[in-house]
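[step 3/7] fold_predict: job queued, chain A
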Amino acid sequence: MKSVIVGTAGHIDHGKTLLVKALTGIDADRLEEEKRRGITIDIGFAHLDLPAPNGEMLRLGFVDVPGHERFVRNMLAGIGGIDMVVLVIAADEGIKPQTREHFDICRLLSVRRGMTVLTKSDAVSPEMLEVVRLEVAEFVRGSFLDLSQIDPGKTDSARAPIVAASSLTGQGLDEVKAALGKIASEVPAKNAAALPRLPVDRVFTMKGFGTVVTGTLVAGTIRKEDELELFPSGKRVRVRGVQVHGSAAEKAVAGQRTALNLTGVSMEELARGMTLATVNTFRSTSRVDARLSLLASAKALKDGARVHFHAYTMETIAEVRLYGAKQIRPGEDAFAQLRLAEPGLLLPGDRFIVRQFSPVVTIGGGMVLDSAPPARKRRIEDTVAFLKVVMDSSPVESLAARVARRGAAGLALDQIPGEMNLRRDEVEQLVRGSTLVRCGTVLVSPRAFADASGRVIETVTKFHAANPLVAGMSKEELRDQVRLGAEVFSGILSKAVEEKKLEVSGELVRLPGRGVVMKDEEAESKKVIEQVFRAAGLKVPALKEVLAGLKVDRVRAQKIMTLLLRDKVLIKVSEELVFHQNALAELRQKLLALKATTPKIDVARFKELTGVSRKYAIPLLEYLDRERVTRRVGDERVIL
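[step 4/7] structure written:
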């Protein structure tokens, strides 16, 4: 059965709750004070099953909202997730202040379907009823409640779905139900496969059940035993039971009035304005970039002004920071960042309402475009260009823009579902249809990838020019200089090697075919150093004396030493001792030959075998331990 959420709207005492009761048989006023005072204070709920014109059964969930100006904030908490609205206007009073404000709110929230009901029609004459009907038709002309906007060919009498009814006598109620069924049948079904999200509008406890929350499920499906995340706290909860329109169910799907029995959280930890959603996906935010519209009846809104911010059941104070403007004039739109006093779960496409800080009246609303704006300031022109793209483009183009604005840092795949409100399989599909570069689990724009690749190659080229005696640049040093993340850096290196723009040897990166380039005196000095150490055997020469006798300066001599050590021609045993590789190889052979007759050796025997002093013997034995030629056992070494 298709579920459609219907919201009421209208001035106080125009008969919204009585109309809902007459249609459904359910009194949506649940509070004792509401019944005593005869007015709706908080949002109430009812439901009705109706046949659509094609015979399909529809379940209408009514959200009845208060009409008093003092309770508009409660009205906003209920109307955020509706599919269609019933604008209620009393025939004996006509259009009143909250009629206008509620109607403005519906338009700002981009409600696209609904009807108008003239209640208390039995209290006026037929002539007066016709006058009110004409007044209302003019009031809604050009809006979503004017059917001429859908079918300009309709006659004047059929342009606006305005039905006169009396909740007391029952007159017109059948026409109201017929119109509701027709309009509800045209409401597109919400996406039950999307990521689930339930804005909480009521919290209470039930004896024998525990903590219960209710709300309109705006997307996805929630089942018994599901684990959900509570925003903005991030606390994990489990669904012990599900009710849909007051009846137990195995699951709730998008578009249904839903009650959840929760475990893992107390009633004190829950409140209206919080949101339950899928785990490990979303993040709460205190800043959103949006397209903000100001009502024609509002005063100009200045940059930096504070407003009351309402989205679904959430309410907080926000500071408006306009992009490239000092104010928004009445009836105009602008891009803005809304800085919220309290964090909440907001996603691209969410509609919101702003009300003047004081006096508190509705002045505008808009749509969230980006709920994860960068912490670092960007040029206003760049931000506006980005917001225009995500507002008007396809999901693939929106993803490309979100990746591009992060430059070479890229965007991690696991961040995209929360930032764009997409399932992971939908993200994978978008990536396949894009030109984005994938570096492990990070996406980078082709331009940023090319620019970063150019920086890497340029950095290696400059390193070679400054260090002709060094065979290559270490990966760690290179990544540090170009300031790239590990996965993007690895992706760039792999691509550069594939295209033969770089070579990688172990931990060294170099230009293709680039070896050590030596001048004649440098090559001669290298040969001298190697010969001196080879001739010395285990009796290491004084390094200072060796370097002092060369034809090159000390800096180049040290680079030559580094090259010999890197190529393992010379081997550093300790900070002070360097040996030729041949000397150490001969020492290994001596120890292996000794093993047949003497499997163990102490320091004294080692000194006798090698002819070196204790100063050299200890570091050499420790080196042999590290190389697993010997193993120390007490004061002796076992030859392995």
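[step 5/7] annotate
The chain has five domains: 2-185, 197-277, 285-370, 393-517, 528-639.
The first helix runs from residue 16 to 24.
exit 0
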